[in-house]
Amino acid sequence: MKRWLPLVVGMTLLVGVVGAPAASALPTESEEDGGTYLTLTQRVGAVELSWRQDAEEAAAVTKFELVRETCVNYSDCVKKTLYTGLDTSYVDVEPIWYGESATYSLSAYFGEGGVDRPSIEVEGQALRDLKLTQGDVRLNIGDSYSLAIVEAATPSFELQGWELGDGLLAYGVWSTSDSAVATVSAKGKVKAVGGGDATITFTSWSGATASKPVAVASAFDVNYSVRASLDPVLKQLKGRPNVVTGTIVSSLPIKKIVIRVLKGSKVEKSYSKKVVGGPKKYDLSAVKYKFPFDKLSKGKKTLKVYVVNSKGTALAHTANFSVVNSIPKGERAALAAEWALRRIGDKYSQSKRMKLGYADCSSLVYWAYKQVGVDLPASSKSQAKWVKSKKKAVKLSKKQLASGEKFKPGDLLFYDYPKGRANLKYVNHVDIYVGGGMIVTASSGFNQVVLAWYGYNGAAIEVGRLA
């Protein structure tokens, strides 16, 4: 019995880590074949398997054999015999990593030569190399803040949002070093209860851990009150817009935001916006193309974001970037991937595809590479032909195309969706790979540009690398 993983992830609907349920609530499945029953229970750090026969068949059994077949994306499968004998249980402590599936098959052999073979398939839910949400966590008493798990291979992608019933990723336990300073819920929500420092730790299904220091101010400090994450692309071509994205969070109602770009100590450009209604959280997606980044001179810059509230003006965020006349060839692909990430949340549209704030698959790729000085054709089929003519196609086997293991950030992934015919004349879709098994895709289904696991649109038939 297969339980398929939902693969689609959007800008705010990303795959999530949930708190550990009670042991009785952990997933249990049973399958039967010819009077032999196999039961599988998933627990933190282990998979427990047990089996039995109908009473009239139990005495005739001569041997049990338990085999685990582990596959990556339902290919590249490896079989391993876990147990042979007459016992009726086994505990498998080898993790099934996220992105893998494992099928446990039990063979019950009988003296007359008969055999029963019940089997159960489970999805990998073990994470490794964990990190918590990047950046300092500084709170005032009474504040709340939701932490998220970030895989080391994809440190910029926060994983949050799916319910336990979807059976995704990792069960785990959140804990705090000092509950008098900060508590944490089963889903990673931190509550500041007293002044001081505490460490919040997540322990995953597979035993991997990640920790985050939390500082709680004993009295109001304006510099503790605001957080923002608005990092620009590190290098931009002169005359191109560097897109502002992110969210500002304040412990007090926000009256105004101010964004400034400095060259040395001199303010080169400034943007301010009054915030109506005084929310404590402000999403910059509505103004991400309005800040005049494209009027900047060449050189090193500093981006500073300020928030004005009833306590005064607080510096919420600082980031550095450079404006250059040209991007070195070896850096273009990775930077194009960064540009594509800035388009997440833009509306899907074919009629308005060349306007900022709208995109379809090929105009997204066209725009991302335009920002690093590469001019591509405007349709997915013509882009695929251009890649071929410029000898930019990557030679990969069918297995490598299915797994994506050889992809690099900035790679162009061409598809014949949904048929998957391996001929460029059938190309009708293109995505851009951004690393860590993730793609940025203009999705007509979600009606926007989203972040998704590779495989959401099937396997690519051609890969272009514009390094």
CATH architecture call of the largest domain: Alpha-Beta Complex
User: What is the CATH superfamily classification of the largest domain?
Assistant: endopeptidase domain like (from Nostoc punctiforme)
Main β-sheet, spatial strand arrangement? 1-15-18-19-12
Mean residue pLDDT: 79
Q: Strand pairing plus helix content: what structural class?
A: mainly beta
Distance between the termini: 43 Å
Q: Rg from C-alpha positions?
A: 26 Å
Number of strand segments = 34
Number of helical segments with 4 or more residues: 5
Q: Outline the low-pLDDT stretches.
A: 1-25, 152-170, 219-226
**Strand portion, in percent?**
35-45%
Largest sheet: 5 strands, mixed
CATH class of the largest domain reads Alpha Beta
- When the domains are counted, the total is 4
Structural notes for this entry:
With 467 residues, the protein is mainly β. It folds into four domains: 18-123, Immunoglobulins (Immunoglobulin-like), CATH 2.60.40.10; 130-219, Immunoglobulin-like (Sandwich); 224-324, Sandwich (Immunoglobulin-like), CATH 2.60.40; 329-464, endopeptidase fold (from Nostoc punctiforme) (Alpha-Beta Complex). It is built from five helices and 34 strands. It has helices at residues 55-58, 329-341, 361-370, 380-389, 398-403; strands at residues 18-19, 28-33, 36-43, 46-53, 61-72, 75-85, 89-92, 100-110, 115-116, 119-123, 130-132, 137-140, 144-146, 149-151, 171-176, 182-184, 189-192, 196-204, 209-217, 226-228, 235-237, 247-250, 256-263, 266-274, 281-283, 299-309, 312-324, 347-348, 358-359, 412-415, 429-435, 438-443, 448-453, 462-464. A five-stranded mixed beta sheet has the order 1-15-18-19-12, with no helix packed on it. The relative contact order is 0.11.
